[in-house]
């Protein structure tokens, strides 16, 4: 039986990956903070191992010699500059420590979950990455570079780059949008077009990256290309909410973000909309996602339709009383 050590198991990608690994017959050990809500893993036949990913000694104690794989989808997805220091620790330092221990403990393969958003800046080096304005993109690219350094030292590692992940086990991200649509509080959509990744298919691609991925390679995990208006409208139709979604112009969201950021200076609470989020709402051309072809050819990756991934997410939310 293969052994996997997994971070971020209570998040959307990680929780789906737990299911995929268990279905494939793996032994799964969940690396988690002491404060993690492990009720999200209730009923899963996994082993729990508390760890402080910011501490190299703690990571050394948590991971034994010769495990088959470390899957590292955990990450700090904050889009507020006030969280920059914590985000660097969560995304860069944690990855650096895991890479170091993977080398020391002769881990079979290291699978790191980055984000397709790094490609908005291209394959920039460390010096350029440090000047990326958006904290989430900056720290994910820097974390990728930590993995690359590990590869140069002999680590067998593969990087995945999911785009917008939609599906079951989403407790925070697009689940909030579905709740707002259901309650009638949301009648306007975000601007721009982008690709969407089904959570279950993305998780399967992580296992495929372990099985088939080329050492040191990076694989984009995208999916159907659509506008945010289409995404919101599809959700409203599935929920049975009679509304005709309209996309607000990009400048409206820019103004809203600046207003919320100004208020946040006094409340010290992360705004729902920030300049970093607005940057990510830009209209991304469909050609940007051509890199996904490599994932399809080498990993056998396929993503469900927009309708299917939204429906799965909504059905899961209903089943657990969140909608």
TrEMBL record:
InterPro entries: Epimerase_deHydtase (IPR001509), NAD(P)-bd_dom_sf (IPR036291), NAD(P)-dependent_oxidoreduct (IPR051783). Pfam families: Epimerase. GO terms for cellular component: cytoplasm. GO terms for molecular function: aldehyde dehydrogenase (NAD+) activity. Residues 5-220 form the NAD-dependent epimerase/dehydratase domain. This is NAD-dependent epimerase/dehydratase domain-containing protein. It comes from Acidihalobacter ferrooxydans.
């Amino acid at each position: 039986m293969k052994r996997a050590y997994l971070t971020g198991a209570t998040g959307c990608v990680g929780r789906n990956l737990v299911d995929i690994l268990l279905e494939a017959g793996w032994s799964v050990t969940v690396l988690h903070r002491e404060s993690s809500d492990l009720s999200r893993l209730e009923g899963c036949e996994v082993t729990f191992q508390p760890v402080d990913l910011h501490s190299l000694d703690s990571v050394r104690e948590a991971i034994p010699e010769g495990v088959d794989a470390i899957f590292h989808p955990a990450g700090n997805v904050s889009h507020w500059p006030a969280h920059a220091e914590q985000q660097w620790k969560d995304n860069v330092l944690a990855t650096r420590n895991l890479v170091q221990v993977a080398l020391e403990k002769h881990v079979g393969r290291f699978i790191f979950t980055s984000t397709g958003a790094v490609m908005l800046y291209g394959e920039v080096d460390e010096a350029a990455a440090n000047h990326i304005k958006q904290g989430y993109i900056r720290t994910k690219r820097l974390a990728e570079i930590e993995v690359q350094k590990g590869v140069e030292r002999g680590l067998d590692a593969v990087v995945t780059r999911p785009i917008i992940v939609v599906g079951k086990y989403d407790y925070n991200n697009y689940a909030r949008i579905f709740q707002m649509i259901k309650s009638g509080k949301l009648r306007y959509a975000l601007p721009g077009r982008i690709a969407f990744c089904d959570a279950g298919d993305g998780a399967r691609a992580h296992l495929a990256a372990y099985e088939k991925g080329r050492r040191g390679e990076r694989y984009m995990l995208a999916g159907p290309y659509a506008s945010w208006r289409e995404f919101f409208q599809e959700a409203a139709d599935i929920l049975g909410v009679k509304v005709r979604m309209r996309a607000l112009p990009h400048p409206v969201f820019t103004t809203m973000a600046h207003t919320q950021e100004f208020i946040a200076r006094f409340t010290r609470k992360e705004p729902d909309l920030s300049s970093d989020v607005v940057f990510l709402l830009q209209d991304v051309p469909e050609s940007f996602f051509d890199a996904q072809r490599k994932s399809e050819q080498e990993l056998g990756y396929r993503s469900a339709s927009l309708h299917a991934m939204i429906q799965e997410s909504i059905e899961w939310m209903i089943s657990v009383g969140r909608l």
